Structure formats: structure tokens, C-alpha cells
Amino acid sequence: xxxxxxxxxxxxxxxxxxxxxxxxxxxxxxxxxxxxxxxxxxxxxxxxxxxxxxxxxxxxxxxxxxxxxxxxxxxxxxxxxxxxxxxxxxxxxxxxxxxxxxxxxxxxxxxxxxxxxxxxxxxxxxxxxxxxxxxxxxxxxxxxxxxxxxxxxxxxxxxxxxxxxxxxxxxxxxxxxxxxxxxxxxxxxxxxxxxxxxxxxxxxxxxxxxxxxxxxxxxxxxxxxxxxxxxxxxxxxxxxxxxxxxxxxxxxxxxxxxxxxxxxxxxxxxxxxxxxxxxxxxxxxxxxxxxxxxxxxxxxxxxx
Length: 304
Ligand SMILES: [Fe+2]
Prior knowledge:
It contains eight helices and 13 strands. The chain is α+β, with helices and mostly antiparallel strands.
């Protein structure tokens, strides 16, 4: 990649502004956004409007271009966005809490080292599907098969919430923005003080990508209005703003190009850096909800 990397020393917090989630100053943010915009190959796939942009996208691998092309027309409808807002909004009482806010609270209770986000498996089950019937959103659940490793995932990012730094290993995939706004910081390796390669912002219709060689390590953050307080460990937002993204991950044997290096990384487990002790850990890719359950809950949500 032809980029000028920020060295870890240049990246060290040197003012009070360098807080969560990226630990950079305003000046570093400006430089990293410039690096993201000039990076080759381009970290963002879009319809090129200049020769320069076309040239930056030229060497994006065909396997991820194919995934991006297939996702290009995906959007959440206005009513789906409104219904998601209702289910994410802070509640006055437990009884009136939406399904998505309830799941966020459960995840927060399990791990408050970073503000939680929600993974929705487009195939297979979710760990919290039962909450939809338990709290009266649905009468019954479908008999859905599946566990970890859904190749297609919808992720819901409440405003000011973020993921740890994580790697998608040997998979090839896309992060396609469906709603709101998402910041993606790219890193050169999976460690707490990894060099930052660039910062890009995705809006609906824009698509980031990754392969095992390129942009496999990142952190995702929703920069929208999260209400009072600064984001960080223990933060939970107080608005219904959110970003949503559609993720596809193909294992090495599912892409047209085979890597014969004998390793067996796949999307069932992704490595990440823990926010509390900065050590490497493994995330089994369980999802929180299944899309079949969420779609039924959203369609039965009154939008008044
Ligand atoms: Fe990711």
C-alpha cells in the first residue's frame, strides 16, 4: 500500500482531545482522513467520478468488487429506520424498553469495556432472539437453524458506540453502510498500539472492504449525536440515533482466489484487542438477533 504511515510515537496522545475511541488529536484526525482519502488501493468502493479515484480503485480485488456490486442497491426503508429508532430509544421504564435497547443493556452488563453494538445474523439464530417473545414483541419464534459464523450480518451502531480493534483474519469481505454514518479506522496489525493507516467515513451506499492482505484490521465507530457524556468504557448513549451496516465475510475457500498457505482462519472466530487490558482475545461470531426475528418485530412496531 502506498501510504505514509503515522508512527506509534506520532500517534501518542499529546492533548486532552485524544480520547475514545481512536485516541487521536484533531490534528492527527485531519492527517488520517487525508491518508484514508489518498490510500491506494482505495479503502472505500464507490462509483468513481474522477480519473484519480478510478485509479485508486483499480487494484481492489475482484472478489470484494463482486460483493460490493451485489450489495450496491441495498437500503433500509424509511419505516425500517424509524422502527429501529423506536427500539433503540432510551426508555422511561423497563416495561417500555424497545428490543434493541434491551439487548444493548444486556450486552453492557456482560462487558462494559466498550459501548455495545448489535450483530444481526441474516442467516441463523441470535443469542437474544428469545427476548422478542419474552417481552411481547412477537407471539412465537421460527425454528431457525444456525449458530456462529453467519456470512451475512447486519450491524446496528448506536450513536457514539464503537467496536474494539479487531481483525477479520483470512476472510474477504465488505462493510456496506445502510443508514446514518460510520467512521472506520484502519490499522496495519492487530495490537493496541498498531499504526493507523487511515480514517474513512461511510454514508449510505458507500462500502469499505477487506482481505487478509489489505485492511483486515479495523475499528468501527458511529460518530452521530449520542446525547450527554463522552464516549468510552461504561458509556451508554441517550439518543435514538444510529448507523447501520451490512457485512459480508467469505472464507478463503469461498473466494475465486485460493491462498495455499495452510492456515485455516474463517469467519467463525475473529481476533480482537481487549479494551481493558489491551491483550489479544478471540470473539466467536455469535449474533445477538436473527434478521427473521428483527424483521417481524420491526414490521409490527407502531410508528406514530
Ligand atoms: Fe469488523
